[in-house]
Amino acid sequence: MSETKKIAIYGLGNMGYVVAQRIAAHFPVKVFDLNADRAAEAQAEFQAQVISTPTDAADCSTVVLSLPNPAVSSSVVTELAQILAPGSTIIETSTVNPDDVRHCEKILAPHGINIIDASLLAGVSQMANGSATLLLGGDAETIAANKPVLDAMAQAQIHFGPTGSGAAAKVINNAVAHAVMVVVSEAGSMATAAGISCTKLVDLLSDERMGLHRPLTHRYAERIVQGDFEGGMPLDAARKDSVLALELAQKLGVPLFAIQGSHTAYDIAAASGYGREDYAAVSKIWEDWNKPVYTALGSEGQQRLDISEDRSLVELSR
């Protein structure tokens, strides 16, 4: 165990407690939670020092936040800004939006305190067994200086870019997961109504060549990111398949929400003249909607946005 750094953990919910456990295996830790019993449990289990007053955290070089919402994080950061020494770092692991992290950065900057967003891509069990992934945003030097603490939480780490980008990556990842949950629920309902084995459907969709994987690993990573829409399955053919799916669902009496909504995007793309291009060209309708923004920014602003977006999208697709 290192004696050179003291780490404070604010928030001992289901995830925060496990984060504290992992850090305590490598560093002396101090903990704070509104639930005094939870803090006492940490004290008994891994010799954590309980933070009773704000100044108890003053000698900590790093503070890890695992809090329920952005407002609580902002309140804690505002308090810590008056206490921590210049050069200290706050690691925000709470699920928040990028602007929330940047708001905290503005609070801390006048005091010479750094912040990293280290969004946790994991369930509690994954965090406990060390298989979690950290999605990082922030200054590379600050991340490097705090690598021992980050490594204590999880070895798998992806640095997405500046402050807030790790938080953005997690929100996007979760949005995809929740949307896919609706899609596979609809698919399973259609399979059940059609008399198809749901177990075999899972096997089919799990194949890396099939419906869940190929849109990401081929059409997104290889076509959209590269801007390659030549050849391949035409968008008109994909739209036709979508029509067949809607017709089947209607015949089976299965209501669709996500699949029905996605069909609208293919209608718009076809009406925009992308019907003969590979069906990854459905992505162009978002580019078309963004053109007024690029025009207002001018060519320099457009180039800046393009570079930023490409970096995030490529990293997220890996």
Write up what this structure looks like.
The protein contains 13 helices and 8 strands. Helix content is 57%, strand content 12%. The longest helix has 34 residues. It has an 8-stranded mixed beta sheet, with helices on both faces. The chain starts with 6 loop residues before the first strand and ends with a helix.
Structural class: alpha/beta
From the spread of the alpha carbons, the general shape counts as elongated
Fraction of helical residues: 55-70%
What is the H-and-E element order?
Answer: EHEHEEHEHEHEHHEHHHHHH
- For the record, give the distance between the C-alpha atoms at the N and C termini, rounded to a whole number: 34 Å
List the strand order in the largest sheet: 3-2-1-4-5-6-7-8
Beta-strand content bin = 5-15%
Number of helices: 13
- What's the mean pLDDT score? 91
Poorly predicted spans = 299-318
Round the Cα radius of gyration to an integer and report it.
Answer: 24 Å
Number of strands: 8
Largest sheet descriptor: 8 strands, mixed
